From TrEMBL:
Spans through the membrane: 174-193, 200-222, 228-249, 277-298, 304-329, 359-379, 502-522, 534-553, 573-596, 622-641, 647-667
Alphabetical list of InterPro entries matching this protein: MMPL_dom, Mycobact_MmpL, SSD
Predominant subcellular localization, coarse grouping: membrane
Protein name: RND superfamily putative drug exporter
Keyword Transmembrane helix recorded: yes
Keyword Transmembrane helix included in the entry's annotation: yes
Length: 713
């Protein structure tokens, strides 16, 4: 790392110009990226995805998206059999490749509410393109309103419509959220540095984010990239880049306070903090392997982009930041109201208190995380139910759902099941009689019969994500098994299969990622116990963050208060996996920051208690500030218009907050204190396997005889 530092400073002009070019190119790329992202949620090799692909190939719509649902309430005296009603639903086909089913096209009176005046239909859309579903909803409303008689109302609803909180475009939303997060980070950095140096990490973050956008734009030329990526790159990139900069700048100030100046202070900071930054970035990237290896395109694209975030941030931090510190660092470190001569007195006192009451601190930490982890056992995966989404949806979508349910129509009709069968095969009579089926229809016309096939639509009574909806999907599949060539599709069916595709290999992935991380940590800390404890505490913290998701969203303890959205009853099926992929590495950052400093102090003094107090004293403010900055970034992410993004932001924010407080302030110092010299034990065989120098018997790291758990040091 010292050699690398010398190389960077020898070529400081080339480094600066290179990053300036990438920064400017990234700014151009950021404006173009949104148009290149997709909303495809395909899951190859699943039965539902194969069915949906067959439906899209033949009919060009539906399958991988929920339909829009126009709901018409007629004035008194107007019959649902009036020609104008049929004409209105025909007018709902506002563009080519739309497929419409309603009472007018099927004659099935279950498309009519119990009041006799409310009638609904389904509009199946082509795959997401330049005109998103929200625009189609407005177009359909206007087209139908022109045909309907005076006094009639039409509202377009549907799960996608209900999931959109407002009409904010994704590009401006990402920019707004990033600016909000940056403002919160600046406040924290100003407190930490008390000088103009607070602006430097923000500059590093800006370069990192825009460079990552540039690379992601390049990726879109070779593969599809999910729209979720833009949110994650901007806000996780903001937090991670600032975290890494914070660590290096703080150590640089410490070296200057100890009398080192100029390039020497940079080299010394790079030798210690720079190594921790490099290791942290690699650890975050390893956690995202869980997404990259999955055979799911949109998750894989998130994994690739997620891996780029820490790696680019590390590269900018270890190249551009040393140049900035060596050239303008001393001048911008003004007025220097806070100095780094000594460890923080507050955090030293805190660490001493935790060491003194280590059993109590460990018990409190385990109780908090354990209690939340127990809540996580009730986790249910699926879409938020329509009633919950309606509370924060746009007025028209919420009004459409209200009209529908007031007329006695179950909300399950929003999540239809599409059945593709050979033309001439048995009709929907058997499907109509299945438990959980509200209606099953076989609409006539070319839009529903093509290339020797025809489409049936099953309207379930319960929404597809609910237990009842999943049971109905299973019954439909069992019912059509005897029909040769029959396939069952629809977005709700796809989600059911997707859960198995995503979580089936998860135990194996956890084992592999845990083993790789353990080996890297053991090398970094030169300790088996510290590495094992770090992995276990990370998993406990992750389970606790799932518990927060269950309490806040599934049960609604806080979702309505903060976001105006009541309990969803479920957690979006892909959110827990994505939380694991990001939190596993991000949380490990703080473990590396703290334990690397403890290891350094132990090597210097040979005393565990001194290592704990000095380690926490030097990193306590750093870790708390870094965690707060990342938490503020996720808080900003939670303002995104999508409810699913809000749920993801909650899980990520809760995980970081728990990790930076309960784990790092209580459990880490308490457990290190409890295990005494066991923390530093590295047997000769392990050192050889890890390709580390075998410690001499008289060195602290090589002392094989541990002290009892009740002693310290």
């Amino acid at each position: 790392m010292i050699r690398f530092s010398h190389f960077v400073l020898r070529h400081r002009l080339a480094v600066t110009l290179s990053w300036l070019v990438l920064f400017l190119a990234g700014g151009v790329a950021a404006g173009q990226l949104s148009d290149q992202l997709t909303r495809d949620f395909s899951f190859p090799s699943t039965a539902a995805d194969e069915a949906n692909e067959a439906i899209l190939t033949t009919y060009g719509n539906g399958a991988r998206t929920y339909p829009l649902v126009p709901v018409v309430v007629l004035p008194e005296g107007t019959s649902v059999d009036a020609p104008v009603v049929g004409q209105a639903f025909e007018a709902a086909a506002v563009a080519p490749r739309l497929r419409v089913v309603s009472y007018s096209s099927t004659g099935d009176r279950r498309f009519i509410g119990t009041d006799g005046r409310t009638v609904f239909g389904l509009v199946f859309l082509p795959p997401a393109g330049p005109a998103p579903a929200s625009d189609r909803g407005s177009e359909i409303t206007q087209a139908m309103s022109r045909v309907l008689p005076a006094g009639a109302t039409v509202h377009v609803t549907g799960l996608d419509e209900l999931s959109t909180v407002d009409d904010t475009g994704s590009g401006s939303s990402v920019l707004t959220e990033t600016l909000i997060g940056a403002l919160g980070a600046l406040v924290v950095l100003a407190f930490v540095f008390s000088s103009l140096l607070a602006l430097v990490p923000l500059l590093v973050a800006a370069v990192s984010i825009l460079t990552t956008f540039l690379i992601v734009l390049g990726l879109t030329a070779f593969s599809e990239v999910s729209f979720i990526v833009q949110f994650l790159v901007a806000l996780i990139g903001l937090g991670v880049a600032i975290d890494y900069s914070l660590l290096l700048v703080t150590r640089w100030r410490e070296e200057r306070a100890h009398g080192h100046s100029g390039d020497d202070a940079v080299h010394r900071a790079m030798a210690s903090a720079g190594q921790s930054v490099l290791f942290s970035g690699v650890t975050v990237a390893i956690g995202l392997i869980a997404l990259v290896v999955l055979p799911v395109p949109f998750m894989r694209s998130v994994g690739y982009a997620g891996m780029l975030v820490p790696l680019v941030s590390v590269l900018v931090t270890l190249t551009l930041l040393p140049v900035l510190l060596a050239t303008v660092g001393r001048r911008v470190d003004w007025p220097r109201l806070r100095r780094e001569d000594n460890a923080s007195r507050f955090w030293c006192r805190w660490a001493s208190g935790v060491v003194r009451f280590r059993w109590l601190a460990a018990a409190v930490g385990v109780l908090i995380l354990g209690g939340l982890a127990v809540s996580a056992t009730g986790l249910k995966l699926g879409d938020a139910d329509s009633a919950a989404l309606a509370r924060s949806a746009r007025p028209a979508a919420a009004a459409g759902l209200a009209d529908l349910t007031r007329a006695g129509v179950p909300s399950g009709v929003l999540t239809p099941i599409e059945v593709l069968i050979p033309d001439g095969a048995a009709g929907p009579a058997e499907l109509d009689r299945l438990p959980g089926s509200y209606a099953a229809v076989a609409p006539p016309g070319a839009a529903w019969q093509r290339d020797g096939t025809r489409l049936l639509v099953v309207l379930p009574h319960d929404e597809a994500s609910s237990d009842g909806g999943k049971a109905t999907i299973t019954r439909v599949r069992d019912s059509v098994d005897a029909i040769g060539g029959a396939q069952v599709g629809g977005f709700g069916v796809l989600e059911k299969d997707a859960q198995q595709a995503l979580y089936g290999p998860l135990p194996f992935l956890l084992a592999v990622i845990g083993l790789i991380t353990f080996i890297l940590l053991a090398r970094a800390f030169r300790s088996l116990l510290l590495a094992l404890k770090a992995v276990l505490l990370n998993l406990l913290s992750l389970a606790a963050s799932y518990g927060v998701l269950v309490l806040v969203w599934q049960h609604g303890y806080g979702s309505e208060l903060v976001w105006g959205i009541p309990a969803t009853g479920t957690v979006t099926f892909w959110v827990p996996l994505m939380c694991f992929a990001f939190l596993y590495g991000l949380s490990m950052d703080y473990e590396v920051f703290i334990l690397a400093r403890m290891r350094e102090e132990y090597d210097r003094t040979g005393q565990t208690r001194t290592a704990i107090v000095e380690g926490i004293g030097r990193t306590g403010r750093l870790v708390t500030s870094a965690g707060l900055i990342l938490f503020l970034a996720f808080l900003s992410l939670s303002t995104a218009p999508s409810t699913e993004i809000k749920i993801l932001a909650t899980g990520l924010g809760a995980g970081i907050l728990l990790d930076a407080t309960v784990v790092r302030c209580l459990l880490v110092p308490a457990t290190v204190s409890l295990f005494g010299r066991w923390n530093w034990w590295l047997p000769n065989w392990a050192a050889r396997l890890l390709r580390l120098p075998v410690p001499a018997p008289d060195t602290p790291a090589g002392t094989p005889a541990p002290t009892p758990l009740t002693r310290v040091g």
